[in-house]
Amino acid sequence: MIVADATQLIEEGAAAMQLAARGPRSMASRRESFDVIVIGGGQAGLSVGYHLACAGIRFIILDANERIGDSWRQRWDSLRLFTPAKYDGLDGLAFPAPRNSFPTKNEMADYLEAYARRFRLPVRNGMRVKRLFKEGSHFVVAVGSNELEAPQIVVAMGKYQHARVPAFAASLSNEITQLHSADYRGPGQLQPGGVVLVGAGNSGADLALEVARAGHETWIAGRDVGQVPFRPETFLGRNLFAPLVLGFIFHHVLTVRTPFGRKARPGALSKAVPLIRVKRADLAAARIRRAPRVVGVRDGRPLLDDGQSLAVSNVLWCTGFHAGFEWIELPIFDEHGMPSHVSGVVTSEPGLYFVGLPFLHAMSSSMIQGVGRDAARIVEAITTRRRAVGAERSILVSA
């Protein structure tokens, strides 16, 4: 979507958008209507909102968090992005940091909040969606005792909504402190003694290094996921990894439209990302021990795949997330519980779209530098459908 003066278009519709963002005038349950409802107020939802505002479409963004950017603020304290700031801005507003710096999670959160404010995007916070269902030609979104409806819906969120912890975690001794990475903030949450990180991907490696440096005897359990051959902060990282891999290969080569992309997509969706910032050598230098997978519990302790159990005081589960789409009451899911779509367009439910999912259209789709292109394409589909429906109604009226 090419817009001559996006800011002007957004400002012209600001009054209507601000009215849309206001809550119901009374506490009574009622149904509000919009042209489009966007579910999710992170970078994906705000990107969609930007392009909807440019198109002059009346919409609302529903965000479960109490504050824009809270999904970033609630991550562990030392988290930094893997991508430099020059790739971390959304359409219309560059990230306010040196181009080759790596923003912290709070800087990213504050940027998203500033983005919504800059473009006056109609975000309602504290709006956790309980149901999404179809009624006639409209979709209905239930939030608490209120309902909202629209002919078109964008679900703008990743598949990282609910922490995934194995069922046998409940059998660990009560004397062991256990946290999922989603609840971990820093080493101060841990008790003295050993720590095992369950899951050897980037989160596991990052947190293992942090807790080891804090003085804990540390194990990292799970399959070795490999590592990229350079560090993002180095000359090669800034001048090869960022522009070539992130800016070109992930964005233009590995897409659903290319043979390379279609071949790579299944593996990209099912396999862990190789280690990016923390390398094997860093783990070894910190005297972090590698261990097989944790497969169960024995005598209250984590049981490893090789039959040994670990006498640790803390378990950090870096075991990923569930998509958390059970509130969508529509027959759109595949055998893996993920929505079936074509580059974000759900063809089986016209008017329903997704943005922010891994490899939605390209390898970059779930990354900040890729979400804007997906958002623009989805808004084009929304606009096209609006015109088609409008034309059909005109024909019926004239007939």
What is the overall number of helices? Answer: 10
Count of individual beta strands: 18
User: Could you name the ranges where pLDDT drops below 50 across 5 or more consecutive residues?
Assistant: 1-5, 24-28
Gross geometry: globular
The overall number of domains is 2
Q: What does the oligomeric state look like here? A: single chain
Mean pLDDT: 91
Helix/strand order: HHEEHEHHEEEEEEEEHEHHHEEEEEEH
> Which CATH class of the largest domain applies here?
Alpha Beta
Task: Tell me the distance between the termini.
Answer: 34 Å
Strand order of the largest sheet: 4-3-2-8-18
Give the CATH superfamily of the largest domain.
FAD/NAD(P)-binding domain
Helix content: 25-40%
Query: Main β-sheet: number of strands, strand sense, barrel status?
Result: 5 strands, parallel
* Beta-strand percentage range: 15-25%
At the third CATH level, what is the topology name of the largest domain? FAD/NAD(P)-binding domain
Task: Indicate the CATH architecture of the largest domain.
Answer: 3-Layer(bba) Sandwich
Going by helix content, strand content and strand pairing, the class is alpha/beta
**Any idea what the radius of gyration is?**
23 Å
Describe the structure.
The protein is built from ten helices and 18 strands. The protein has two domains: 6-161 and 323-398, FAD/NAD(P)-binding domain; 162-227 and 274-317, FAD/NAD(P)-binding domain (3-Layer(bba) Sandwich), CATH 3.50.50.60. The chain has 399 residues and is an alpha/beta fold. The strands form five sheets. It has a five-stranded parallel beta sheet with strand order 4-3-2-8-18. The chain has a five-stranded parallel beta sheet with strand order 10-16-11-12-13, with helices on one face. Mean pLDDT is 91; it is low at 1-5 and 24-28. 31% of the residues lie in helices and 18% in strands.
